[in-house]
């Protein structure tokens, strides 16, 4: 699919590198671009002369699509379509992102989130079609579709239905997270911009490289994460156990942030981000090989998104240090110190400093508590001892004639649950006496 990239900026030079990456990620072949520095034209986004230049380039290259790196209103899409050769589609960056999401969505949850985002995007366009139809114009051109008076209500009904289903899925996932916490698992989430190296880092942190153990323990979770140099390889969430004895740690890779996302799109993927918001620790992964101004801007966006609902500590991970020299790394650390105090520097690709990152994870996660329990010898005592071996770090078990003494350390939630189970054993023993 041949496409022309178009971008307007208020001033300066337009950077089309990200939109080109997005286009390639969606399977397009970029055959040309048109850029302009000026204030937005209400009717066309770009000026009329530049729009005519765009139409000529489309005709010359036989492009079938024009992708704008600007947000296009319904009327701008319509007006641009009338200037371009017949059959050429006009989309903007958000339509393109949704197209990529739709291609990558594998799970029911991801598919629902994509559908929700698409409907939220379509709603104002349905309203525009109504307006055009009332003016006896023809809104079927260039992406607006044919007018259907009932479409607005259909969209609103579908949005309501999908939100209800996503809420049910999120409740189920929250119950699973709580069960994992009760079972002694610390939950760590990887966050950051797309292509920062989160999926590669997850593979380095994972203990269960053959993934069989993880699949048996958590069959609802994806066991593998793709590591590719392209955007949005992770759309849902991928969770694996980390190599961090004696702790049991689950690390989750999530969909990457991308710049200038509209509120309706972020909101549609809110339930995926809940894996970040409800973690015990967030690793904010940054590509340190990018220009420092770009890193700074991305960190600000990530912090704004995370601090809105996140309560867990955040550790910044400066990834891809194999692409920068020591002096550049030092300069960038100093420049970013206000946003990223005491970061961990790693190369996920070459496994550099992964042990240091694991140590930092261990220090930042909630402290474990030491406990020594005296358990009466009953029919259920051995199942409690076995449960402690599964959910805590058992240091010693001493068996007497009438009782068992277990020394262990574990998450506070596990210690509390162990005390409760010991109390139940004592009540049972007293009733039997």
Indicate the CATH topology of the largest domain: Rossmann fold
Q: What proportion strand?
A: 15-25%
Terminal CA distance reads 80 Å
Global Rg: 27 Å
For the report, how would you describe the main beta sheet?
A: 6 strands, mixed
CATH class of the largest domain: Alpha Beta
Overall number of strands:
13
Strand order within the widest beta sheet: 6-7-5-8-9-10
Q: What pattern of helices and strands is seen along the backbone? A: EHEHEHEHHHEHHEEHHEHEHEHEHEEH
Mean pLDDT: 81
Structure commentary:
The chain is α/β, with parallel strands linked by helices and 433 residues long. It has four domains: 2-102, Rossmann fold (3-Layer(aba) Sandwich); 104-167; 184-364, 3-Layer(aba) Sandwich (Rossmann fold); 369-432, no CATH class. Helix content is 47%, strand content 19%. The chain has 15 helices and 13 strands. Helix 1 runs parallel beside helix 4 (93-104). It is elongated, with a radius of gyration of 27 Å. The model is unreliable at 139-144 and 209-235 (pLDDT under 50). GTPase that associates with the 50S ribosomal subunit and may have a role during protein synthesis or ribosome biogenesis.
